[in-house]
Amino acid sequence: MAIEVVMPKFGLTMTEGTIQKWFKAEGEAIKAGEPLFEVETEKVLYEVESSAAGTVAKLLYPIEAVVPVGLPVAVIAEAGENVAEVAARYGGGAPAVAAAATPATSAPVAASATAGAAPSGGRREGAPVTPAARKLAEEHKIDVSRVVGTGPGGRVTREDVQKVIDAGGQAPAPVAAPTPAAASPVLAPAAQSIPLRGMRKVIAERMHKSLQGSAQLTITTEVDVTPLIDRRQEVQREFNATYTDFIIQACAHALKQHARMNAALDGDAIHLQEQISVGVAVALDEGLIVPVIHNTDKKSLKDISQEARSLAEKARAGKLTLEEVSGGTFTVSNLGMYGVDGFTPIINTPQTGILGVGRIVEKPIIYRGEIAKRSTMVLSLTFDHRVIDGAPAGAFLQTVADLLAHGNRISLDAR
Fold it and tell me: Distance between CA 49 and CA 45 in Å, rounded?
């Protein structure tokens, strides 16, 4: 009996996946446990293995198709079955839903290529890159910034990178942008439509749901972090720690003192979580992802620093596992490197709080009764008022601020 391979569900929030690669072609034999296809979710890339041995009778979707969870994506004929008959039962092409699921099926190929072209050579500045494309480019040492994307909104796909590899590593000349005379009579020459799907769609849905489904309030405080700057210089002699590393450690220790901030609301119950695991927001071309440092409070600053750097590198390379993006109990989002002073971060539900970190600024302030040049930082704490009130939330923020104001003198080795 033929076996249908369906789009799996990785994590509670996954509703669809994008097929990035087929490891087997129709008619090829496959063993149980052997990779069949690679799927991109809103968080990570996964290789999906075959659950049975047999022959790949039908691949129901092309590469870059977006398929809802639970729908068949391929059919495997078991030993002794007539492969041609099995394939025929599923028709000569993909099911009807494939047309709707495949990205940009209604747009002509020429339009897609034009959308991804850079006016002065190379791909358009800021054009997104799929994790699969980035991974393949790194493996073959291809400068992905020179690859012309043909996906929606100029997105660089795995197929685009493969074309460069097939051409000997040389990126093809970009397609010239259309002149006003050749442009669509409806849209201006520079106008384009970027489908809201994949990671961007999930972020949009989660942020909207977070704001609509919780009572969010943001409080801020300005901290004199001059001692923290000195402390970081001391630590640099041993290892390279960032300010974010110090903030993560400070938050982890503050969460031990203020358990309600480490809680999660589930229905009518507030769960005080035993584990403290701080997530760190990492910006990607495709959007935002939050890898998690598990048991953060039990790790030294050096451990936190090394793990945070490793997770950020894996996030940008599209190599994070589901475990590495799950289980967070609190989040830190640092926009200081972009010159941002303060902002109102949105909670990564079902967490109770998220700390926004601004840039460090030198300014004259009253210090010990005199005007002195000091370095300050704005911290913005957004919390769910259904779980915790303003006073205890303020106490948590004050604990974090005090740790940073004293150079975060938590032992480097204590666990």
Answer: 13
Residues 4 and 58: their CA atoms lie apart, in Å, by 9
Per-residue pLDDT at 409: 80
Predicted structure pTM score: 0.66
Structure tokens at 168: 């000997």
> Which stretches of the chain score pLDDT less than 50?
92-125, 173, 175-184, 414-415
Could you tell me if 234 and 376 lie in one domain?
yes
Domain that holds residue 25: 3-101
Quick one: which of 30, 14, 13, 11 has its CA closest to 22?
30
Write out the catalytic residue numbers. 385, 389
Domain boundary among 195, 213, 242: 195
**What is residue 85's predicted lDDT score, i.e. its pLDDT?**
85
C-alpha to C-alpha distances, 204 to 98, 158, 162, 288, nearest whole angstrom: 24, 24, 30, 11
* Statement to judge: residues 80 and 116 lie in one domain: no
